[in-house]
Structure formats: C-alpha cells, structure tokens
Design goal:
Number of domains: 4
Low-confidence stretches: 1-18
Strand order of the largest sheet: 3-4-5-9-6
Strand content: 5-15%
Structural class: mainly alpha
Number of helices: 28
Length: about 700
C-alpha cells in the first residue's frame, strides 16, 4: 500500500513538473517571441490545449457577462484580443501537423478535433455574447468608429451569423453536432491522403527500368533508397520524384504504374479509402448551409467573395473555357501527332503519357527542357534571386538568425528588415520533401501581425515546399516550375510580412479567398523577364550567366500548352463547384460524379479507376471549398496588375510602393475591389490574361 502511494505521489509530482515545464504555459521567451521548437514535445500539446481552451472560455465568459453597455472596446476588441495562449499552441501544432507530423501527432489531432469544435461552438453559439456583438454591429455607423473598426465589427457579426448564432435553440444544437462531425471528417480525409502518399514506394533494381531518366532524378532516387536501407532506385509520390518520373521515363508501363498509384489515392477499398469522407463532407456542408438558410454550400460561402455568387464563378469558368478551349484541343492534337511520329505508329495519349510526350515536343520546338535550365537554378542562387526581388521592389533585407529555433534541421530562419533596417518579420523556409510533410507547397504563419497599445507586433511567417533535394554529388538544382512555386509562396509570405493592420483578424492573408492569390500569382511574372533572370540564374559549377539564347527559349516557351494547362485548372474549379453546389444529399458514385463535373473541359481519355476528389485536399481538408476558382480569378487580376509594372518598368519603385501600400499592407481592412482599383485605377479585365497567354 505504501509503495502504491509512493508511486501515485511520484506520478503526481512528475505530472506537476511536466506542467511547469510546458513551454506553451507562458509567452515564449525567445528572439522575437518565436516558438521554442527545441523545448516542445508531443506530450505538451494536449495539456496546453486544455489550459488554453479553459483560459479562452473564461475570457469569453467575462465579456459576455459584462454588465456595461456593449461597445466596440469592451466587446469586439475584447474578443479580438482574447485567446493568446490558444493562438500560441494552435499555430505551432497545426503548422507542424502539415510540415513535421508523425503518427502520435495525428492521433493527438484526432482526440483534439471534437474538443476544439466544441470550444469553437461554445463561443459562436453563446447567446449573451452574440447579443453584445449585434448591439455594436447595429450601431456601428453612428458610434464614431474608424473604417477598420467597422470592418472588424462586420467580420465578427457575420462570423457569428455564419456559425449559427441566429438559429433557434434546436438549430444551434444541430449546428453544433454537424460542425463537430464535419471537423472530424475533414481531418480523417487529410490524414488518409497523407498516409497513403507516404506509404507508396516504387523500387527499381534493374538499370533498364531507368530508361530516359536524367542523372539528377536517378541520383535522387538512389539517395532515397539508401536512406531507407534499400538497394536500387526508390521513386514515390512526392512532387520531385513523381513529376520527374512522369516527364522523363520512356518506360510507358512504369509511368502508368506510378500514375495509377497517384490517381487512385483514396478511391480503393482499404484503410485510406476517402470515398465515404467525400460524401460525408459534401453532405455535412450542404446540411449546414441549409440550416443557415442557403440552398447550397456555395451560396453560403460566396456571399463574402469577390465573385459574390455561383453565377459569378461559372461565368468566369465558362468565359475562360470558351477562350482557351480550341487552343487546348489543338495542343492535345499536336502532342498526339508528335507521339505517333516519334513511335512510328498511331498513339492515343493517355494521362500517363501527357507529361512525357508534351515535354519532348516542347524540347523539339523550343530546344529547352528542365535539365537544360536546372544547372542555372541552384537553390542558394534562387534564394538570393527571390529575396533580391523583394529587396529591389520593397527594400527588404533577409538576415539569417541562428538564435531562432527551428522545427527541423533543414529549416532556416531569417530576420526580415525593412528599408530602414528595422525588424519587420521572421521568415522560416522549409524546402525539401520528407516523411511527415504533406505534399504541395504553402505559406502559413506561426504568428500574424497586429497593433496593440501602440506596439506593432510583427509576424512570424513560414513557407513550406517540396523541392528537389541535393544529392551526394550535386546541390539542390531546381526545375523552372519549382522556382515559379518558390516565387508564388514568397508572394504569400510578403502579404503576411508587410502587413500593417491594427487587428490580427484583418491582417495579412486574412482576406477573401479569391483575393489572397493575387500577391502570390503576380510574383511569378518576373520569372520570364530577362532583366530579372540575369540577376541570379548562374551555372552552379561555372558561375556563368544563363546564356541569352537559353533565356529567350524559356520566354518563347512560356505559353507552351497554355490552353491545356488552363482547362486542367478549370476542371478543378468545375469539380469544386459541382460538389459545393449540390442542393440534395449525395449518395452516389464519387468517380462518376467527378467525371460528369469535369466533362466540359476533359481533354484526355477518362481513366475509370482514377479519382481526384478523394485526394483533393484543397477543397476537402483545406480552405478552398467553393473557392478553387480563385486561382484562375487571381490570374486575371495578376495579369492585369503586372501590365502596370510592364508599362512603368518591372522594378519601378513607385508602382511597387503603390502595390505595397494598397494591396500587401492593407489585408482585409477594406473591400478588396476597392483596394485593387486604388492600385490599378480600374477593375481587373480578363483581356490582359488573354493577351499574356497569346490567345488574343
């Protein structure tokens, strides 16, 4: 008995000690208050979330119970500044869940999901709190508030309204149950996708299987096999491995094998089957929209977007489908004819053939391919080029800070300084694929910008990618597309780093989903400008500039297959809208529904077993539901916006300063169309995109 009591006492003391050591329990005492990654362990997360939720709820209860009349300061601003600990722990946990995850973190997320949904609902469905928010909202135009304060008040009111605050007691309970179920389904979807992506490997042991592959790709595959203690060459579904193999392998059977592994993720019987999650997510979103008085989820979402409604989205998609359709079909015919000519027999281009033959034809027409340009895109030089563009346009400086802790040895942290040398932001860069990191590329924040008590609290921004790794004999040499991706995510980072809003909820990238892609898309335009490429595209061995002839080939090839690529992107937009414009619950066949949704812009033969929906993380586990069209809308805006840089000079300080002041710094403090017109002097026109793409 005595021994048992001692054991219990020991466990209790260890628990208390662990609690005292939990780095989330107090503000981070680190450079710029950055996350102390070296001190954070998995066992810290759940106790930190429990404490954070309790603290946040107590703050909310005090605001709701305040006997004083509701004002902006004691209600809206008080809510805005609540939940500091919640922000600390959630930003670290959810960022690392995407970039440095493991099975234990996934299990923690499963346990946390219902608790976090419940916590959110407890706030959004708090009747006393909503009454106070509504009181401030109703008097917002007569209360001598600033435009930004009015904007924040409207954001909170609409947020409560969209989360069921105006529902009956029974409706609130329905909303609570539906939102919790939806949260779990989206989490399950994303984790299935990540696990299946990580699980697949194609190990090749015969050199004959490497036919057509460049040395850079085989070196990377050999290194990957070696790390896993395997003999041969290991290919997987990470972007550099998959894209490179599909583009260069002359082994059609192996291309088909790898394609099918990627295209059938989540659509096969087994532990990663996402078909039921797709149905569940679409139906739960429809139920929530119906409960809130909307006929479809897209109606519910689009009222707070630049497109305004489904008709606006379909109008954009249809206009672009008409404009690019004939060009796209001609491009597919050209690739098929070229393939037949090369093979000496008629070839029907299957999806696993497209990258291979399209790249061969591109090389034939323009004399340029990734392996020719790759030596000039060594990662360290590319970093200098991307950072240098921000220096040229906005006067920013990027200073490595080894005192800032990072979550993986490959991650680098920078102090970002403004033109006066004052601290502006922390920037983390994370470039290469690894287990535990989801596919794709993204920007996020560990801390967003805001102003409080006269202090401008600066952001901590991260950009995460999955670029070609260095090998034993070569540094990381990027493809043209990877450099373009770097510029894209860096544009998002600038939106976060240059933010100058009073309130965090309106800061940086917290804008309409169909506006957030403008700062990222516009950065891509510089990559086909000779004056810019000449500044950083040096051969990694000789240091020589990329030859003018090769630069010109890149420029000449920049619109190659623009029709095909446009219709492919439109197909994703049509698919997204089909799932989220449902007005009746869906119980049918997921691949068949998908094929019907994409039929208008389908260019290659349909593979019955393939399905994108079951791995379409952007819309089923990300934030792009009823919003994937925004990528094409952003292209319309960025083409129109960059035309002003072309007119005034691509490094013109006045144009850059206007873009910074009117777009990058303003966040969601005003309607995005007003911000855009202030920069551009007019609403965006699709004509600039058609002209840039060479179809008009």
């Amino acid at each position: 008995m005595k021994k048992t009591l001692l054991t219990l006492f020991s466990v209790m003391m260890m628990t208390i000690a662990a609690a005292e050591e939990n780095p989330f329990f107090k503000p981070f005492a680190t450079p710029h208050g950055t996350a102390p990654f070296n001190e954070i362990r998995n066992e810290h997360y759940e106790p930190a979330f429990e404490k954070a939720m309790a603290e946040h709820q107590a703050e909310i209860d005090r605001i709701a119970a305040n006997p004083a009349a509701a004002t902006f300061a004691n209600t809206i601003e008080a809510i805005e500044y609540s939940g500091n600990m919640m922000n600390r722990v959630s930003s670290v946990f959810f960022n690392l869940l995407g970039s440095e995850s493991n099975d234990e973190m996934m299990e923690i997320s499963q346990r946390l999901s219902p608790k976090l949904s419940e916590h959110s609902n407890n706030i959004n469905l708090n009747e006393d709190l909503f009454k106070r928010v509504k009181a401030v909202y109703d008097s917002r135009h007569s209360a001598e508030l600033t435009p930004e304060q009015i904007r924040l008040t409207e954001k909170y009111y609409e947020g409560f309204e969209n989360s069921g605050a105006t529902l009956s007691a029974q409706g609130k309970e329905q909303y609570r149950a539906l939102s919790m179920e939806l949260s779990k389904a989206t989490l399950d979807f994303g984790q299935n996708n990540l696990r299946e992506t990580n699980a697949y490997e194609m190990l090749l042991t015969d050199e004959a299987d490497l036919a057509g592959l460049p040395e850079s790709l085989t070196d990377a595959a050999a290194a990957k096999a070696k790390v896993k203690g395997r003999e041969g060459w290991l290919f997987d579904l990470s972007a550099p491995s998959y894209i490179g193999f599909m583009k260069y392998s002359s082994r059609r059977d192996l291309r088909q094998k790898l394609y099918m592994a990627n295209a059938t993720k989540g659509v096969k019987e087994g532990p990663y089957d996402n078909r039921e999650n797709v149905r569940k997510i679409a139906n739960l979103r429809l139920q929530i929209a119906n409960l809130l008085g909307y006929s479809s989820y897209s109606d519910y979402v689009l009222k707070n977007r630049m497109a305004k409604n489904a008709a606006g989205v379909y109008g954009l998609l249809d206009r672009l489908a008409d404009a690019f359709g004939d060009v796209a079909r001609e491009e597919v015919t050209a690739v098929a004819n070229y393939a037949s000519e090369v093979e000496g027999k008629s070839i029907e281009i299957e999806p696993w053939d497209w990258s291979y033959y399209a790249d061969k034809l591109k090389d034939n027409r323009f004399g340029v391919n990734d392996e020719m340009t790759r030596p000039y895109f060594e990662l360290e030089n590319v970093k200098k080029g991307v950072f240098g563009l921000a220096t040229e346009l906005y006067g920013l400086q990027f200073v490595p800070n080894p005192e800032i802790q990072v979550y993986h040895p490959e991650v680098e942290a920078f102090d970002v300084l403004d033109e006066e040398g004052d601290f502006l932001s922390v920037l983390y860069t994370d470039f290469h694929p690894r287990e535990g990191k989801r596919s794709g590329a993204w920007m996020s924040s560990f801390k967003s910008q805001y102003m409080k008590d006269g202090i401008d609290s600066r952001p901590h921004v991260t950009i995460v990618m999955n670029f070609t790794r260095p090998t034993e004999s070569k540094p990381a040499l990027l493809t043209f597309d990877e450099v373009e991706t770097f510029l894209h995510e860096f544009g998002h980072a600038l939106h976060g780093m240059l933010a100058r809003s009073t309130y965090e909820s309106l800061s940086g990238t917290s804008v309409y989903r169909d506006f957030v892609e403008l700062p990222s898309h516009i950065m891509e335009n510089w990559l086909t400008e000779k004056e810019y490429l000449d500044r950083f595209a040096f051969h990694y061995e000789t240091g020589e500039k990329m030859p003018d002839a090769l630069l010109q080939k890149i420029i000449d090839a920049s619109n190659y297959n623009v029709g095909y690529l446009t219709l492919r992107q439109l197909s994703f937009g049509y698919l997204d809208m089909a799932w989220h414009s449902l007005t009746e619950p869906f119980s049918g066949n997921v691949p068949a529904f998908e094929q019907a949704a994409m039929a208008r812009v389908q260019l290659l033969p349909v593979v019955p077993e393939a399905c994108m929906s079951t791995a379409f993380g952007h819309i089923f586990s990300g934030g792009y539901a009823a919003g994937y069209y925004s990528y094409k809308w952003a292209e319309v805006m960025d083409a129109d916006a960059f035309s002003l840089f072309k007119q005034n000079g691509i490094f013109d300080k006045a144009t850059a300063d206007s873009f910074r002041r009117n777009i990058l710094e303003r966040g969601n403090t005003e309607e995005p169309m007003e911000l855009y017109k202030r920069f551009r002097g007019q609403e965006p026109s699709v004509e600039a995109l058609l002209k840039r793409s060479g179809v008009q």
